[in-house]
Amino acid sequence: MVKSTSKDAQDLFRSLRSAYSATPTNLKIIDLYVVFAVFTALIQVAYMALVGSFPFNSFLSGVLSCIGTAVLAVCLRIQVNKENKEFKDLAPERAFADFVLCNLVLHLVIINFLG
Amino acid sequence: MVLRFSSSFALSSPHSPLTTDTRRLHLPSMMVGGLLRFLVSLLAVAICNAASISQPISESHRSAALDFALCTWRTLEILGIDKKSDLSSATCENVVKVLASPSSALRVNGILKCKSGEDVPKVNSWTLSVSKLQARAKDAKLLLDFYYSVRGLVLVKEQFSGTDLSLADAEAIFPSIKALSQSDGRWRYSSNNPESSTFGAGLAFETLAGVISLAPSGIDQSMIQTLKTGILKLFDRIQKYDDGTFYFDDSEGPISTTASVIRGLTSFSASESTGLNLPGDKIVGLAKFFLGVGIPGDAKDFFNQIDALACLEDNRQCYFLALFMQFLFVLFQFSVPLILSLPSTVISLTKKELLKVKVSTVLGSKAPALSVKVAEALNSKGSKFDADSATYFLDSFPKNLDVGKYTFVFEILLDESANEKAYVTEAQTKVPIAATGAISIENAETAVLDSDVGSVESQKKLDLTKDEAVSLSANHLQKLRLSFQLTTPLGLVFKPHQAFLKLKHESQDFLGLVEKLYYLSGKYEIQLTIGDDLPERPEKAPLPPLQPTDPYSRYGPKAEISHIFCVPEKLPAKKVSLVFLGLIVLPFIGFLIGLTRLGANIKSFPSSIGAATSALLFHGGIGAVLLLYLDLFTTLKALSLLGVFLLFVGHSTLSHLAAASNKLKSA
Which family does it belong to (chain B) (predicted)? Predict the structure, then answer.
């Protein structure tokens, strides 16, 4: 039973990886960016847990900057994805322009909140 | 060389002659010899070092350094600190060897009292220096040149009494020095410089005194007469304090300036036989100035103070003049001021103390036979002179002196008329004196009144010197009055500064204010305290209460209020923060590595110049927006410009990219 479970899991991961390798490179770059942002946020949370949240503004703005940009990146990925028929007529350049604009607004707020 | 020292001083009011306290400030006599030797050898080293570096040290430098040593030595000499030290001939020799400059060496020699004939091997060198000095005095243009050369010659004359030294050109030199004087009595340092000073006037008088004494055939009396009017002009510039203290003030500071003038005047009056009629009160006022200065913090000021006092004390000690005193038979024209001082300005009437008055010269030497009279505030007889202690007792103490504060006005009457020329006294010396005595309390009585001015219901006499009980009865509407009178030994009414009445109920500690008596019946204790500085404490009276030391006592100070402030949050150690900063970089590095492994590239970055610039500007604009870290309104202002710019640049870049990809698709 245990054996078959681990094998199933392995099979699952293998099929996932083979399916993911077919993903276009531009989407992979966005995924990498999301992972990068989330890890950065995790390190900040670890810092807060270990050391303390004294400049709480700074902590919040740091974490929210990471999470926010990750969310925006996910939105960009949805729009850029060719498989997604919903945004078929939307040019990827337009999607990128949206992404840049949203990031600018987000970070303006973040930087002013930093304190 | 001029030494300029700024002086700061405080005036203290009692003018008493310098006492042994001042002397004690200085080194014990045995150490002095050693100290001076040290100074001289130190000077030798300093000069050698200085000479080897660049230029040979000038004479003014030597003189400046020497002045320090000389001032110390001179001060000790004036204050009479006995120097048993063996100022060996070696020291004198060293001085002569080290100091090639003649005038400095002469000054050292004069102070150290080297026996010139025995100790100084090269007497010839002195003769050489004399001719040098004579030539220098002849060619001099500046006041200081005159001063040092003439002074050097006088010193030579002083120390080599055998030599027949004179200044042949004295008749010519005198007017050329006189030409530097100003109409207001001050003197210029050089004929080119219009600036004049009182300090310079002192130097000039000293120089002219030297010229007069060195002149072989005397100076024209008319020139001396014009100089005298100049001196009197200078006295128009004298400044005054309210207590009769006089001083001269100038850029050199009051102590240096006044000392310079005194030195000049004493030398001038000593070198010149026709007399200088300076007002006596001014001379006493100048002496009072130096006595009132206290102990100046600056060594130069200290020396000036002591030296000026020594000049006033006895002209023979003034270190310029020792020589020609021998020839002039000590003809004093400059009077020696006498200072009147009181050992105590408080006299106790109960102890029948006598009023002691002391008259002495400024340095505390004995005054000649004289009598002191109290001119005002009291009717008293002249006092007798007590030769032993130089203290004058007003022996028949006035019977009518009562407790109080007085201003006594003393007059000093010199006994012999011959002395009057040599000594000068203040016309009248005012001294505040306090007479203390026993104050008695009389006519003490208590009364019960219907109102403040109302009729007296019952009245009882009290004797406050005894423990006495009086019984009174009153209702809550009535008032209690305690009245008493303080009288002096002569029976006059005495008004104290303060009077405290303390009413104490038998059951309680203290009832505070009289309004809060709460109409308590019972036994009360009355305590009366008189506060003033004139009554003497009766033997029976209790000592004044000690100040409360217990912080919780009723009348003591309350505990200090300590303010609690918000405790600042603790920041972690810098190292921890830096470690996490490093950790933050790791995901970014991972991101970059991932990008390379995915084969990301910037091939689609526009290659044409126009598109590439707009793309670069686009990215730069994004960076600029992210770097905006100002207050909100400034940010918005900048953003409105940057936003429009970004809109255009971004549009052009992205549309260019879109066009490119469309082309690719269609192809």
Answer: Belongs to the SWP1 family.
pLDDT digits (tens, 9 = 90+) for B526-578: 777 888 877 777 666 666 666 555 555 556 667 788 888 888 877 888 898 89
Q: Does B632 touch chain A (CB under 8 A)?
A: yes
Q: Does A105 touch chain B (CB under 8 A)?
A: no
User: Apex CA B467: angle with CA B466 and CA B469, to 5°?
Assistant: 120
- Residue B240 is predicted with a pLDDT of 85
Residue B54 banded pLDDT, cuts 50, 70, 90: very low
Mean pLDDT throughout B45-59?
A: 39
pLDDT at B27: 32
| B contacts of A51 (beta carbons < 8 Å) | 572, 576-577, 580
pLDDT > 70: percent of chain B: 63
Flag if B576 and A51 touch (Cβ within 8 Å): yes
Q: Are A101 and B639 in contact (CB under 8 A)?
A: no
Q: Does A65 touch chain B (CB under 8 A)?
A: no
pLDDT digit string, tens, across residues B312-347: 776 544 444 444 433 433 334 566 777 777 777 787
The reported pLDDT for the residue numbered A30 is 92
Q: Could you give the CA distance from residue B248 to residue B286 in angstroms, rounded to a whole number?
A: 9
Q: Is A90 within 8 Å of chain B by CB?
A: no
* Residue type present at position B235: F
Q: Write the ipTM.
A: 0.85
Helix (H, G, I), strand (E, B) or coil at B522: coil
Cα-to-chain-centroid distance, residue B122: 45
Tokens representing B647? 């809109």
Q: Domains of chain A: which residue ranges? A: 25-114
Specify the pLDDT at position B23: 34
User: What would the 3-class secondary structure string for B217-278 be?
Assistant: CCCCHHHHHHHHHHHHHHHHHCEECCCCCEECCCCCCHHHHHHHHHHHHHHHHHHCCCCCCC
Q: Which of B569, B629, B655 sits opposite A111 (nearest CB)?
A: B629
Q: Phi/psi at B98 (nearest 5 deg)?
A: -70, -45
Q: What is the DSSP letter of B167?
A: -
Let me know: does B318 contact B306? Beta carbons within 8 Å. Answer: no
DSSP code string of B333-356:
-SPEEEEEE-S-SEEETTTTPPPE
Which one, of B364, B333, B200, lies nearest residue B267 by Cα?
Answer: B333
Distance CA B613, CA B618 (A): 8
CB contact under 8 A, B625 and A40: no
Phi, psi of A12 (to 5 degrees): -60, -50
Beta-bridge partner residues of B498: B531
8 Å CB contact between B137 and B150 = yes
C-beta of residue B203 within 8 angstroms of C-beta of residue B154: no
Q: In which residue are the tokens 């009248």 written?
A: B428
Mean pLDDT of A48-63: 88
Report the residue of chain A nearest B649, measured CA to CA. Answer: A97
pLDDT value for B567: 83
In this prediction, residues B174-191 reach a mean pLDDT of: 80
Q: Which residues pair with B480 in a beta bridge?
A: B448
Q: How far apart are the two ends of chain B, measured CA to CA in Å? A: 102
Check CB contact of A19 with chain B, cutoff 8 Å: no
Residue B51 pLDDT exceeds 80: no
pLDDT of residue B570: 79
Cα angle for residues B280, B285, B290 (degrees, 5° grid):
135
B93 touches B120 (CB < 8 A): yes
Please give, one letter per residue, the 3-state secondary structure of B415-452. CCHHHHHCEEECCCEEEEEEEEEECEEEEEEEEEECCC
**Is the full-model pTM beyond 0.80?**
no
pLDDT at B515 over 60: no
Please choose, from the candidates B344, B243, B334, B246, the residue with its C-alpha nearest in 3D space to the C-alpha of residue B287: B246
